[in-house]
Amino acid sequence: MSESVNIRELNDLISSKSGFVSLITRGMDQTIVGQKHLVDSLLIALLANGHVLLEGVPGLAKTLAIKTLSSLIDAKFSRIQFTPDLLPADVIGTMVYSVKNEKFEVKKGPIFANFILADEINRAPAKVQSALLEAMQERQVTIGDKTFTLDNPFLVLATQNPIEQEGTYPLPEAQVDRFLMKVIIGYPTREEEKLIVRQNIAAIKHNVEALVKPEEILEIRKIVEQIYIDEKIEKYIVDIVFATRFPSDYGLNDLTSIISFGASPRASISMAIAARAYAFLKGRGYVIPEDVRAICHDVLRHRIGLSYEAEANNISADEVVSEILDKIAVP
Fold first, then answer.
1. Is residue 259 located within the same domain as residue 200?
2. Contact (CB, 8 A) for 248 and 67
3. Residue 38, exposed/middle/buried by CB under 10 A (0-12, 13-18, 19+)?
């Protein structure tokens, strides 16, 4: 009985804070046409204290989306264009000798911001990628003998172009695993594209004003952490992840030759955290199976290794996840 009362109280608390979601969504809609899934994914990552890897062809408003979000939240935005000649010091900063003070001083890099757009992350060598991903995981940066804690909230949106693979350095699986979600961005619909053209030729520009303070995000995260996950939902999440590792145990024998390695325990944690954030967006104080299913593809697609047989037959990680979801019993 006390549990239901707590959930009722939590529902009331969430509904009182739901204005935040509508404010952000309305603000994003002013500058971005369509791309609802991208906007929702950014909000989930923000509430779940995670990072997003975006994959899509150029010109799909990836940069505009995170820039708009940072403006709406009155936060510091930083864009890093990853190139083959980029150095770790260009990302995190370095020690610079000051002639005036006759000593080495710390010059902070662009990583010291709330929102980081790591544009075309697969263009830079592994050493630079590691510098960024270490900062993402540890939430701190060491320059010389000094360690600096990064700002909070801290969200990295990394993009990669799926078309041009020449001159790129694909992210190793262990590093890709650091991203809460990998989101695939598609083209806009015909109607959306007409609206995009109309707005651009009319030179319609909306001034994005800050509507939310970073402190409010931190408060809402504390509410998200209280969202109730039943044991049955936890079992459902674990079953989905285990099915990527041992498909034959779940009657998915045809996937045995398709999957070369399954998702890590970080996948289970990420699914639970992202499902909570999704439940908050839907105004609920508890997680239901539909929340898990809604975020499942984004959380798992970059954590499943596909065999040569899968690639030869053009089988994608999304198809594997869909087959697992169809097979695992919904609680």
1. no
2. no
3. buried
